[in-house]
Amino acid sequence: TSEAACAPSLADTGRDIAPAADSVANLREAILRRLTYSVGKNQASASEYDWYLAVVYATRDRIVEGWMASTNAAYVHGPKRVYYLSLEFLIGRLLGDALNNLGLTETMRAATRELGVDLERLRTLEPDAALGNGGLGRLAACFMESMATLSIAAHGYGIRYDHGLFRQVLKDGWQQEYPEDWLALGNPWEFKRPEVCYRIGFGGAVEALTSPDGATRYAWKPAEYVEAIAYDTPVVGWRGAHVNTLRLWSARACDPLQLDVFNAGDYVGAVADKMRAEAISKVLYPSDETPAGQELRLRQEYFFASASLQDALRRHLKQYQEVRSLAEHVAIQLNDTHPAISVAELMRLLVDVHGIAWEEAWKITQGTISYTNHTLLPEALESWPVPLLERMLPRQMQIIYLINALHLDSVRKSGHTDARLIAAVSMIDEHAGRRVRMGHLAFIGSHKVNGVSALHSKLLKQTVFRDLGTLYPDRIVNKTNGITFRRWLFEANPGLTRLLADTAGEGIYDDPMALRKIAPYASDAAFVGEFAAVKRQNKVALAKIILDRCHVKVDPDVLFDVQIKRVHEYKRQLLNILETVALYDAIRAQPYLDWVPRVKIFAGKAAASYHHAKLIIKLANDVANVINNDPTVRGMLKVAYLPNYNVSLAESIIPASDLSEQISTAGMEASGTGNMKLALNGALTIGTLDGANVEIKQHVGDENIFIFGMTAEQVAQRRGRGIDMRETIARSPALREVLDAIGSGVFSPDDPGRYAGLVDILTHHDHFLVCEDFDAYYACQREVAAKWLDRAAWWKASILNTAGMGWFSSDRTIAEYADEIWKTQAQKKE
Ligand code: RUG
Q1: Tens of pLDDT along 443-453?
Q2: How many A from CA of 8 to the centre of ligand 1?
Q3: CATH value at residue 179
Q4: Which domain of life is it from (predicted)?
Q5: Whose CA is nearest to atom 14 of ligand 1?
Q6: Residue 98: inside a domain
Q7: 685 C-alpha to ligand 1 centroid (Å)
Q8: SS3 string of 700-734?
Q9: Average pLDDT over the chain, rounded to whole?
């Protein structure tokens, strides 16, 4: 397909970054053996997909021994183990990653060439493993790779969804969702472990049992059981030195069917229980920062938390023969509130199953668990109705009540009796029907709670966890997110990687801070020329993808202005669209001016139920239609909305970007990680002082980033004055004109009223302050254009972005977690 033809080439460095001992002949023979004995084909009859399978198996074989060695060494040397519990892992493709980390890319390329197959084409046959919605899931995938790279004995635990994030199709500009089927042809990376199987209970009742010594024990008798079956994927670190496991759980009914019902002729009824059980791992919830609010979601959360904890305890018992020392040897990280039920479940397992006294079990739980918060948005902070928890997880609800009672007792004992404070720190929210605040449960059950950027962690202390933070002042810490440079630089941008290594030395492969060494070349004409040539080559490749998928022809020499992320009001794609329309108006009004030609590139999915976000996608496409077909703009401005944004598409867009749009309402984006990937690849950021933008500014230098708009404090103040924007709009003729045009149907002649509601919201209830920031943003975009015209200044800033981004390696982030939260070190050599 043309998709294959347009994909960036696999670590096309001309040499293996981390050369391995394997020879081309060895690999060629290994592929052929796998083709014959695992795929069951000969060379003459093998399809491209058969070759792909054979190549993956041959690659995987080179990981497995290291995997076993790492696993054994963890038992022998006993480093503290880390369990990373995440409902999402947004992995993408694995072949390029594995080859790159093993140092086998070029050897494999040569081996496949000798067999008459093209490695690039094979690579594009791999479906993206999209078991996540966005930044949170991608962060988990980067962390897995960094933990392996740093030789930390870690397991990732999550759910093996049959269907990951939906496939987005744009039909007449409207988002349509289709199920994605990444497992349709099997998954050659994973190992099914049918023997690793846990029974997960739901519903039923709790029985109090009094033992002969008079003590009361509680036994949960679930009404229903579902089995959790493990599937393991090895995660190989940089240079292949250490391999960890990503263990994903699949749900299976205890009985495949009800035979009596089947024999009575009710074939559908006979498998109803099986369907209900297996629905748990059917689909990833397509929500990002919006509450799913579904019972099935809670079943998913408990299912994977319980299976993972049972598995961790089993491993601990095997190694240490008792559970009391758990906190000494195990760190469990909760990735967001989704696994927060783990606090109650670990208590249940320790107290009810392993017979540990409550106080000791609580110490163990708190000592073991820590929690990462990823959002301040109130609607994304999970809470579950008490009656639902009571019905689905009755023993866990009892435990939550008891944890809460003891917690509130200790609050009162420490002298805090104020009713407002007690209500605020209680795990039970009494406001709108009784609900359990899962963030509070995670906070109280953890020894450390972290935010994901300096600003976010500061705001956590001031807002959602203000009162809890005051009671436990040492608990909240910051761990600014990071990205793995192996995927987001070495693999996604091999041309740039080669240039950086040639200039700054091979040290950049192991020490991201060594990127600083290219700073002195930021004005060196020869280096700038090569840097620009790499960018141009990447832009040519992206232009092909845009032509192919959007039918928009773009000139690779224009400014590529990129906003790629989930579509959400707080991320303010709308602000970008309004500016696009204002620029369109300005170009038409004064066509003779020296406009900087640019293409606005958008990509991103909206949650299926988020109608407003879907309307924003439609607006971007409507605006694109009008502008791209208007001869008066003469290519000065184009708009392209690339459908079905995923990890692989990001790998093509990011190396080709000139300008990175990070324009969220200040205080609302916890961190962002796309901002880091783009800046690392030399895009200049236009952004607000939000999330990790603040730290990116510190690292790349104030003069190499475009900052505009209100700060988080100013946002709070502005909202305090109300969010009616009529006066603001009245002061801005450009904004008025844009809103009039959109609201009156200039971009939707087929349905002139389509955007009347949207404009009405912006005018009267502009919670995300799009209007208030509009003028500053428009002005800042003109500064961008001015800088673009000064080519030397632009390239200097671009190079200094790449040079300054070393700190944002996820290796640094993971090292901080290991030191300050998990208290673990690299595992000794296998
Ligand atoms: O929105 C946040 C991003 O700012 C952040 O970079 C990412 C990783 O920390 O997590 C995102 N996020 C938050 N995704 N889902 C949530 C809901 O809590």
Answers
A1: 999 999 999 99
A2: 27
A3: 3.40.50.2000
A4: Bacteria
A5: 136
A6: no
A7: 19
A8: HCHHHCEECCCCHHHHHHHHHCCCCCHHHHHHCHH
A9: 95
